[in-house]
Design brief:
Helix content is 44%, strand content 22%. It is built from ten helices and twelve strands. A six-stranded antiparallel beta sheet has the order 1-2-9-4-7-11. It has a four-stranded antiparallel beta sheet with strand order 3-8-5-6. It has a two-stranded antiparallel sheet with strand order 10-12. A hairpin with a 2-residue loop joins strand 5 and strand 6. Helix 1 crosses helix 3, helix 4 packs across helix 5 and helix 5 crosses helix 6. The longest helix is centred in the C-terminal third of the chain and has 18 residues. The radius of gyration is 19 Å and the shape is globular.
Length: 269
């Protein structure tokens, strides 16, 4: 039986999701609310990120920060294989406070979207194996935390405060974040932040990489994932997340994450 293009795996530590993939799938622009840390195993890909457009080759370590808009498409005809860990910000913040104790209260971020470092890639592979190989082994959380601390010490830096987002855009984004299921109109958002509709679309896209509508869809998809993980019946998730119906949710979910809600839910039961 051929391997599944996307596989979600159980992990040994709360706050970590694991996925391995082997696919030709081209991801559109999307974002995660977690830190992403992974390695390319085979093939190559090109991706846009908030830190520039990069090409990733076999053995490269790839990262993404929470809320950072990115995409990904294979380079060449052979697709690419990669493995990825998604780390909850609270987990990273707790470890970062120990890794960078002299900067209390500072936000942290991964400093580069792509790193070509064989030693680092080996560490990421070891972390992935520790997190997924023996999820019920008593010593697994200890090994995962050790590996993760070593990697974060190399990759984390204080968040760049120089990437300023205009207050109007930040306010519009915060309104969507606070209630992604609301039927926001462009006129509503623009009026609330004191911009014309055109100004809001242009400035929002420049600052975030997504238009207001595309950003709203992303937040609704993440809201849907949280409901699914919390045990909400799939038939109820679409309406509770602001989608027209279940087929609408399924179509956008698969386009963004490369897998259907049913497959995602099966993997996280």
């Amino acid at each position: 039986m051929p391997p599944k293009p996307f596989q979600f795996l159980p992990t040994a530590l709360p706050g970590i999701d694991a996925m391995q993939a082997d696919s030709h799938f081209a991801f559109g622009r999307h974002m995660h609310l977690q830190f992403g840390l992974g390695v390319i195993d085979r093939g190559a890909q090109k991706s846009f990120s908030g830190r520039g457009t990069v090409e990733s080759l076999p053995g490269d370590t790839i990262t993404v920060n929470p809320g950072e808009v990115h995409d990904g498409k294979p380079l060449g005809d052979g697709g690419r294989a990669w493995r990825m860990l998604y780390l909850e910000p609270a987990l990273v913040a707790g470890l970062a406070a120990e890794v960078r104790p002299r900067t209390p209260g500072a936000g942290f971020e991964f400093h580069a979207p792509n790193l070509r470092d064989a030693r680092l890639a080996a560490q990421v592979r070891a972390l992935f194996a520790a997190a997924t190989r023996h999820p019920r082994h008593a010593a697994a959380p200890l090994q995962v935390e050790e590996c993760l601390l070593q990697i974060l010490a190399c990759l984390l830096r204080p968040a760049d405060k120089g990437r300023h987002i205009a207050a109007s855009v930040a306010n519009a984004r915060a309104m969507v974040d606070d209630d992604p299921t609301m039927a926001w109109s462009l006129a509503d958002l623009a009026r609330e932040v004191g911009l014309s509709r055109y100004q809001l679309v242009r400035q929002f896209a420049q600052a975030t990489g997504l238009t207001p509508h595309a950003y709203l869809v992303q937040r609704r998809l993440h809201h849907a994932r949280r409901l699914m993980r919390a045990g909400t019946p799939l038939a109820e998730v679409a309406a509770a997340s602001g989608f027209a119906d279940q087929s609408h949710l399924t179509r956008l979910f698969a386009r963004t994450f490369g897998t259907t809600p049913h497959a995602y839910l099966r993997a996280h039961r």
